[in-house]
Amino acid sequence: MLPGDQQSSVRGRTGRKGRIQRRLAAVLGADIVGYSALMVRAEEDTYKRVGAECDRVVREIERAHGLVFNVAGDGVLAEFPSAVEALKCALRVQADTARRNARLSPEERITFRIGLHSGEIMVQENRRGGTTINVAARLEALAEPGGVTMSAAVFEQVRRTVSASYKPVGEQRLKNIRDPIMAYAIPASACSSWINMPALPRQSLPGATTAEDAGEYRPSLAVLPFRTLQKDQSDAYFAEGMIDDIIRALGGLKDLLVIARSSTIGFARMPLDVRRVGHELDVRYVLHGSVRRSGNALRIAVELSESPTGNVIWADRFDGELTELFDLQDRIALRVATAIAPELRERELDRALRKHPDNMTAYDLTLQALDRFYRMDRSSIEQARELLEQAIAHDPDYATAYSHMASLRMRWIGQGWSADEMADRTMAANAARMAIERDRNDALGLAIYGHLQSYLLKDYDVAREYLERAMAAGPSCAWAWAYSGLTSGYLGDVATAIARTERAVRLSPIGADSFWLEHYLSQSYYLGGRYADAIAWGRMSAAHAGANTSNLRALIASLVAAGEIDEARKMAQHLMRLVPTFRLATFRARTPLRGEVRDQFADRLRQAGVPD
């Protein structure tokens, strides 16, 4: 079913029908496969059965908070305030239809194709039109019978919230659509087996995002175009453009779904209402800001709000000059990314800890695993491993759980707790590989895989390849820069090691895992002969996590190099209390440090009292 050019049905009638309004929506188009052939075979019976099927689809759409605006003999068009709800509705329709068809002969089955697109639609009285509707209808025609095809605009909003078997089908040239559309498909086999989770009544959770109550929850954030406070609005383009760098920086934060700019631009001229933004874009967090210009001076205010309540959870202000605009944009992007990461982590962890165990998702379990992982004692890390194993069992396609499992295995070896180092290396390598297989563009997964290659396997060429990919995929991923800095240090490129670990600390200065980054910077300074700096950062890391044996070793070597032997010996005694079996022979065989640097490092540990 394709209702012609939906734009032409509205265009040109403003005078008679009133003003055209525009709003963002997700559009669902559903059409019956082989409708004409069914009618030829048994016209009256088909007419009744098709009517009954379409009624079921309409009821399902209404139950999912959608609005049907076009019903033809063989199909339906509907709009939704949320792409997530539109897709879940489509999957429920296909799963329910497949179950009914299983009881029928092939010639009696009524099967739907469904297409989804998200963007701006035009509304005039009860009529709707626009390119978004046309694209949804064209994508429906591309869908496999019983399957769903969606645009990239929908895919980016749903991929981390709705668990389904997404398959990229490439750019598609659609009739009467100027630009090609990148499309993704969910095959009929995956739709038919999708678990039907009823949508909650809208009144039960006013203003909240429906994603939090879905089978797999992921936090999501929308960055609204900044607003100008100038009366003439001449700077509106400038204020709105401020968000590009911020979106790019936030896009590197693992497990935070950042809505594309194209989906938020429609809110630029609307009154600010974070609850409405959260509802329409299906996001839990909203970042918004304002720009005030006075001559050459700029003042930019930024706020992060929680959409269900509208509460501001973080705010900051930036002052600068118009001549330093690009530097100011970079500073804002960096500051926002570094501030939001720990704020969201704490809020998300609190939310996960309040949930009943029966309602846990892979994301919740991984959050709890990381909370224990960062405590750095053996019992906590064992608990973290168990939680990650549960997360993987809950969602075998969740790349993040595999990434952190690989990291955990490396830490287990680094702490000196491994009873079978080769087995732990193999498990770390397997977990890292499985993470990359599930998400080839995940900056954290690529970084962990690269670090594993250099730290455990001593394959520095492969390590550099993956670490470069990680930094390209996630420019604001602190771990990509940190691990790349470590590998540069192992290879003797000290200047690069210092520059990259310094950047990592700037990207994540206050996170729960910042003690690792402080240690990496300390080690880079040690390799560069900057022992006072190495000691300062090593002490800071030790104050945050005193049981991190890797940091203790680097701090001991730095203290000895600086002539502070008494403190070095106290640190060495602390190290041996933590790991009584630690020996320099084992360290020399395992460390990725090479040649004279390795020998000197080991000798300084020996001078502090660490046994051979």
How would you describe this protein?
With 612 residues, the protein is α/β, with parallel strands linked by helices. The chain has 4 domains: 14-193, 2-Layer Sandwich (Alpha-Beta Plaits); 207-352, Rossmann fold (3-Layer(aba) Sandwich), CATH 3.40.50; 355-489, Serine Threonine Protein Phosphatase 5, Tetratricopeptide repeat; 510-612, Tetratricopeptide repeat domain (Serine Threonine Protein Phosphatase 5, Tetratricopeptide repeat). It is 53% helix and 15% strand. The chain has 26 helices and 14 strands. Strands 1, 2, 3, 4, 5, 6, 7 and 8 form an 8-stranded mixed β-sheet that branches. Strands 9, 10, 11, 12, 13 and 14 form a 6-stranded mixed β-sheet that branches. Strand 7 and strand 8 (181-186) form a beta hairpin. Helix 17 (443-455) packs parallel to helix 19 and helix 23 packs antiparallel against helix 24 (565-578). The longest helix has 29 residues, at 325-353. It is elongated, with a radius of gyration of 28 Å. The N and C termini lie far apart (78 Å).
